[in-house]
Amino acid sequence: MRPHYPAVLLACSALAGALRAETPLYRDPSQPIEARVKDLVSRLTLDEKAGLMKNGAMGVPRLGIPQYDWWNEALHGVARAGVATVYPQAIGLSATWDDSFVRAVADNIGTEARAKYNDAVAHGNRDRFFGLTFWTPNINIFRDPRWGRGQETYGEDPFLTSRMGVAFVRGLQGTDPRYLKAAACAKHFVVHSGPEPLRHDFDAEPDPVDFHETYLPAFEALVREAHVEAVMTAYNSLYGRPCAINSTLYDLLYHQWGFNGHVVSDCGAIRDLYTSYKVAPDAAGAEALAVRAGLCLRCGEEKSAIADAVRRGLLQESEVDLRLGQLMRTMFRLGFFDPPAMVPYSRIPLSENHSPAHAAQALDAAEKSIVLLKNDGTLPLQAGSLRRVAVIGPNAASLPALLGNYNGTPAAPVTILDGLKAALGTGVAVDYVRGCDWTAARPGSVIIPTTQLLTGNDLSGLIGQYFAGPDLAGAPLAQRRDRPVGFDDGRASFPPEGVPADFSCRWSGWLLNGVAGEYDLTVSGKGGFRLFLDGKPVIDAWSGGAASRSASVRLPENARTPLRLEYRNRGEAPAIALRWSTPPADAGYAAALAAARQADAVVFVGGLTAQLEGEEMLVDSDGFHGGDRTKIELPEVQERLLQELKATGKPMVFVLMSGSAVAIPWENEHLNAILEAWYPGESGGTAVADVLLGKVNPAGRLPITFYRSTSDLPAFTDYDMKGRTYRYFRGKPLYPFGYGLSYSQFAYDHLKVAALPGGGATATVDVTNRGRRVGDEVVEFYAREPANGGMPPIHDPKLTVSAGAAVDQPGHEAENESLCGFRRIHLAPGETQVVTLPIAEARFRRWDPRRGDWYVPAGAWTVAAGASSADLRQSAEVAFP
User: Fold this and answer.
1) Confidence at residue 794, expressed as pLDDT on a 0 to 100 scale
2) What is the distance between the alpha carbons of residues 12 and 24, in angstroms, rounded to a whole number?
3) Contact 230, 330 (CB under 8 A)
4) DSSP letter (8 states) at residue 798
């Protein structure tokens, strides 16, 4: 018998209503997100709330809140989660000067993030680095080339940084109106750029004009334009108040810019409040200060003290609810509480991770990022006229030099050496000699640097497993990543909290080395210890009684050797340290010179590596300290080898790899050609070879100034901009901001600039390729304010600075020009393209420190167009009232 359809529909409707009645409001996708957040938070106990507000949240199974670690990285590809497409480091992406391309890169990074997350959840994997909340991008201003983390940024200019940052966030977060593909995070808020060893207790006090005109614009752009989902606070203090609890910064975010995401601390920054800054007596006091100020999520391994803070009356539970609600809103935006069928990104398969299209894009990105710094006609190399090429230098066969920091694992990386061999083919002999190390090590035995010890997913340090008793028996009581193993100075952090005095430990990971040769390894400590390399014992003092034991081992070049160190202690004061002394950095000179003499051309691949510059790491070589550089010159051991190679009379090409500006005045004067390849990602070797042999016409541009000497720079700890970057440096740089050569020549004509009725202007210029090769040109526009464009007069007597008072305005000098627009274009030989760009009013605004507000200097502004900040070929005026 056929059913009566109206009756069936009525029954279905009744059933649906009953189901809705049983479904919690927060589980109902038809409800407004704020109502769902409020309902979910109301169902949590205080302890559950506290447990959700740290990065390693255990979840609340009874409510379907998953275990989740908020900490993930995707600076230039999904990091630390196994194989992923590895793009050029962020500074290299910025060197493309192509924000639409960077958005496409970030879109694919977001796709790989979703692919990994979907697969991980399907297999019950809730580990760190497989989530969807990425603490990327780093939009701090790269104000000083000595900062080791500058490689993570988009350079020294606030406008370029803003455009690249907005593009990256939009790409990563996706275009769905309801759900985020992934959540981006703008870091580190704010005025954060070294020195790394001081970051936990340093107070930055920039000039107020610099604060508003240089340090804040990128963060404002990411909040207002890109709607970035998260913001991370900086470790340092700003104007005497730690950034994690700085009310000025939270007021900017929440009240002036309308931020609608969540705020996370950098890892360990809340602990700094009671250990370094002493503004709180303990963990509960610190967490109370942070949550009350506006923090939503604390990164750190320590147990949450939020519930304790509420019970002690230091914090109201309603304040906890407010900040937890912001976190839960992000989970809703990611689709954690909705049926997967409703979330379009939940259907992205694992096959989208490192797809052929993404690999091709990584090669394209590397090619676009390469900057040709010098060429006397030697490039492009003519393979048909070469019989033998000598490839020399510490970065030629180095995998870490491709990757930079905060990186993923490439599936098929191509080193510079491999790329050149493949491009030159079997008709050209390629002789490789490393020649030297990156830099000379300190003499004697030193603690093995953090960056020479690796754990899984290429994290620095070793994994330490701590056991009760002296025999490594049973399940470990604690496990952590130790960076480095150097516990011989009485530090209270060894062993971890909860481990008894009678304990043992096993550290495991890999030992990385550079040059081949004899390495002297030393273990010293109180108690028993033994060391294994590649599974074989090399030092054995397990029975105790030896304060120190050494062994000499021969390691091949660029080796990654499994290492295991075991330690036992029977109740005495614990101490253990792992040291080495390395072979001479210049041991390969003779072989390098012999190869050069036999070659038709020499390609030297050197510079820096993320094993020397990076985040707060134990590196103490000549010119390097704590992750930063103390000198910006090319390390002496490399420059000396280059000088000897040049003396052979062979054509010399220098491929410079770095995450920051390197002072190379001698090289610029004496070598035939120089490329800046940055840390170019998985296809760096192919990209460099394509440029050297002319398959690709280079068009990358510098997002930072290359100075001639360390002496050009102000003090590293001085956060005022005077004397820094292209806008305020009054010396002659080696290579200016925006600079980059091509194998073609481009002409600029007919620049026109017109004011727009609503504010701002529009600029138009004709650009013609006068060369014989197809190529890209980056058209750069700069604005210079009127020579007499002072601040508006003051009529308010309540203002503390009188109208006639002199105010130091380092950025308001008449000759100062600031980037106000750019576009990368593609031109065939002889082709002309009309480039039209709107220039927003914000590009003309300046900060008035007397009023604490913005204004546009009145008068005739000059807008210039050209190929760099020092090569402006057309100019026109536009007037503002």
Assistant:
1) 65
2) 20
3) yes
4) T
What are 504-536's pLDDT values in tens digits?
999 999 999 999 999 999 999 999 999 999 999
Q: Any long-range contacts for 203-206 (C-beta under 8 Å, 24+ apart)?
A: 203/236, 203/237, 203/238, 203/239, 203/240, 204/236, 204/237, 204/238, 204/239, 204/719, 205/238, 205/239, 205/240, 205/719, 206/719, 206/720, 206/721
Q: For residue 270, give the nearest of 238, 304, 239 by alpha carbon.
A: 304
Token pair 């108040």 in the structure block, residue: 241
User: Residue 8 above 80 pLDDT?
Assistant: no
Peptide bond into 703 cis (omega under 30): no
Task: Pick the catalytic residue from 69, 482, 566, 613.
Answer: 613
Exposed, middle or buried by CB within 10 Å (0-12, 13-18, 19+), for 192? buried
Residue with tokens 């993923």: 408
Q: Determine whether 613 is an active site residue.
A: yes
Enter the tokens of residue 33: 């997100």
What mean pLDDT comes out for the span 71-80? 97
564, burial (CB in 10 Å: exposed 0-12, middle 13-18, buried 19+): middle
Which residue shows structure tokens 């470990």? 476
Q: Which residues of 110-122 are buried (b: 16+ CB within 10 A; e: fewer)?
A: bbbbbbbbbbbbe
The reported pLDDT for the residue numbered 580 is 94
Each residue's pLDDT tens digit, 674-720: 999 999 999 999 999 999 999 999 999 999 999 999 999 999 999 99
Tell me what the mean pLDDT of segment 551-555 comes to: 96
Instruction: List the structure tokens of 721.
Output: 């901009």
Spatial contact of 680 and 368, defined as CB atoms under 8 Å apart: no
Task: For the full predicted model, state whether its pTM sits above 0.85.
Answer: yes
- What's the mean per-residue pLDDT of the chain? 93
| Residues 634, 655: Cα–Cα separation, whole Å | 13
Q: Which residue has the higher pLDDT, 8 or 311?
A: 311
Torsion of the alpha carbons at 311, 316, 320 and 322, rounded to the nearest 10: 170
Tell me the two tokens of residue 63. Answer: 């409510």
Question: Is residue 366 a contact partner of residue 416, using CB atoms and an 8 Å limit?
Answer: no
Question: Is 266 among the catalytic positions?
Answer: yes
Structure tokens at 676: 């800046």
The predicted-structure confidence for 157-175, as pLDDT tens digits, reads as follows 999 999 999 999 999 999 9
The amino acid present at 788, given as its one-letter code, is N
> What number is the average pLDDT over the span 3-25?
51
Any idea what the Cα angle at residue 129 is, between residues 486 and 324, rounded to 5°?
105
Task: Given the residues 207, 266, 720, 848, select the one marked as catalytic.
Answer: 266
Which residues, 6 or more positions from 50, have their beta carbon under 8 angstroms from its beta carbon?
304, 305, 306, 307, 310, 320
- Name residue 47's amino acid: D
DSSP string, 38-100: HHHHHT--HHHHHHHSBSEE--BGGGTBPPEE-----SSS--SSSB---PPPHHHHHTT--HH
Q: What is the DSSP letter of 245?
A: G
Q: What is the pLDDT of residue 546?
A: 83
